[in-house]
Amino acid sequence: MKTKLLLFALITLLVTAYSTAQDRTTIYAKDGEISDNLDLKAVASVFGESSNLQDFERRLNDPRLQLSNLDLNYDNQVDYLRVIESVENRTHVIIIQAVLGRDMFQDVATIDVEKDRYNTISIQVVGDVFMYGPNYIYEPVYYRTPAIYASFWIGNYRPYYSRWNWNYYPTYYYTWNPFPVYRYRRNINHCINAHNSYRYVSYRSSYRAPQIYASKRNNAFERRYPDYSFSRRNNDVVNHYELERSRDNRDVYSDNKNGTRNQANTDRNYSASRRYADNNNYSIDNTIQHRNENIARTETAVRKETKRNYIENSEYNRRASTKRNEVENNFENRRSQSSREYSAQKTTAPSENRNSETYKDVSRNEKKSYGKREYKGENRRI
After folding, report:
1. Are the beta carbons of 149 and 238 closer than 8 angstroms?
2. Which residues of 306-316 are buried (b: 16+ CB within 10 A; e: fewer)?
3. CA nearest neighbour of 150 among 92, 199, 88, 84
4. Which of 152, 247, 367, 376 has the highest Cβ tally under 10 A?
5. Which has the closest alpha carbon to 97: 84, 86, 88, 87?
């Protein structure tokens, strides 16, 4: 039972996710501007590089170039673009149609190629009114004559009519998913030959071309979504050209606004940096001033201390010198006194010796005299 419940929950989750993805794809496709998904300048560029209309159709649907990003049937696949041609005298009208279903086609653009009586060839790429608005026309000026011109005016010319249809495509073709518009617009520039020039005009130079095209027009998408015309999608502009210009003006305004904001931010940052630098310089100056004051106070204290030490040392030296002098004087005095005493002793010693000798002589004489007296006495006693 638990296994069945788990399996049922898993299936429900997958179905819900698939439905959500489908809804998201549909919303994405219908919310974008249709005319942004096929650049007519790129169409004109590859037309001038093609050798014939069959080669032109191949280039339009080449998966490597991915020239188109149209998904008009909302199947999340880029629609195949087929090419058909209608000719009257010297006027060729090449019609580009998106294949939406079996025998369901929507005209996207036409290419009018006409040669006048002076053999001057004119070419205009005209966007469909429902897709691009009225009078959205480009006149390409090729830097060299396209090879495809040579195939138009030959004997027994047969107009080209594509044989490809819904689910019946050439072998080189395979479908791909449409890109976001911003990515398509960025990548499509690689398909536009910069050596050519593309001039926008608001009128058709051939009066025959509109009459020829009127009998060949297909508008399956227009019939299905009649309220989704360019004029309904964009009320404030006439055609896609004015839409691009309004975008450019908004981009310029946005750039100017961003530039002004950036300039204001730059000025503000500069002012803040200036204030910070001034404060920093003020702090540095104060630091230097305080350091100089500290150094000055230190030097003054050192000088005072040195002077005091010098005075103390001088006083000490003076006292030491005085004491040394006193010691030396005392020593000299003692030495002088000792010398005098020694001299006095030396002087007195001979006198004493003489007195001693005299005393000795007197004593000796007295003894001699006494001896004589005693001798005389003895003799007298005898």
Report:
1. no
2. eeeeeeeeeee
3. 92
4. 152
5. 84
How many angstroms separate the CA atoms of 107 and 81, rounded?
A: 9
**Cβ–Cβ under 8 Å, residues 238 and 134:** yes
Of the chain, the end-to-end C-alpha distance in Å amounts to 188
pLDDT at position 122, please? 95
H or E element in which residue 269 lies: helix 240-381
**Environment class of residue 114 by beta-carbon count within 10 Å: exposed (0-12), middle (13-18) or buried (19+)?**
buried
- What is the model's pTM? 0.61
In angstroms, rounded to a whole number, what is the distance separating the alpha carbons of residues 120 and 71? 37
Residue 68 neighbours by CB distance under 10 Å: 25
Distance of CA 262 to the CA centre of its chain: 15
Token pair for residue 222?
């227009």
